[in-house]
Design a protein that fits this description.
The chain has nine helices and 15 strands. The protein is of the alpha+beta class and about 280 residues long. The chain has two domains: about 130 residues, Conserved hypothetical protein from pyrococcus furiosus pfu- 392566-001, ParB domain; about 100 residues, no CATH class. β10 and β11 form a beta hairpin. α1 crosses α2.
Amino acid sequence: MTQARDLPLLAIIPLDKLLLHERHDQQRTPHLLEGLRGDQVLHNPPIVTPLHDRTGRFMVLDGAHRVLALQTLGLRHILAQVVEPDDPGLALNPWNHVLWDWDSEEFVDSVTSIPLLEVCPCGEERACQEVINKHAIALIRLPYKETLSVRPPVQDLFTRVDFLNSLVDRYKDRARMDRTNIQDVYALAKLYPTLTALVVLPRFRIEEVLYIAGTGHLLPTGSTRFTISPRALHVNYPLAELEAEKSLEEKDAYLQMWLQERLASKGVRYYGEATFLYDE
């Protein structure tokens, strides 16, 4: 591992030591496979964090589909950016799901048919408080109509995760869906003429997500949004080095040398301001 000059911490990690924390979208992997095979470099390392449970495992915070693509290619190791769970630059926020092209009443009927799940009309302020207090696993905001509170039968962590997956399963393959941090359904109705609903998802703490992943459970796809600053991007690390029949120690030694060469040639640049990339 190396962290020269306060650079992001990059490390070569065995792929079998990585855990996902969300269900993944199978449709995204073939496109990534094609890009990796064509470019023969890993452009942006996934971000991982150690579990600290003496197993040597890491949870993938961002870049799950890159991890799955490299596993499909048969690689044993990956280059990753490592951050600690309590890193001050690490933040976890929920995504919300905006749904469209499905009749709102059919959507609500589908959700209310989930056994033991309680779906009740609720005032906006109370509904938000129920999600904060973890009495509800989600809110459903219907276009120009009411807000529904979605409550599981019991409040323990794994029951909430199971019912959250059941909820997302009802619409992820039926409605068209985007992730958003917008919570104003009226604003979304202007952007999505066939708006079905806005599903406001709950906030989890980082230690909860680590515990969920460490015990083999998964959150719904597209439900969490980890951000880290600083972030290592456009690293363009050669796949040949990750594929090489070398030991982990040999691969780490090469990484150290490769990074020093990049620094010596002034190939590493830091941007302190918020940045938009147009070549992704």
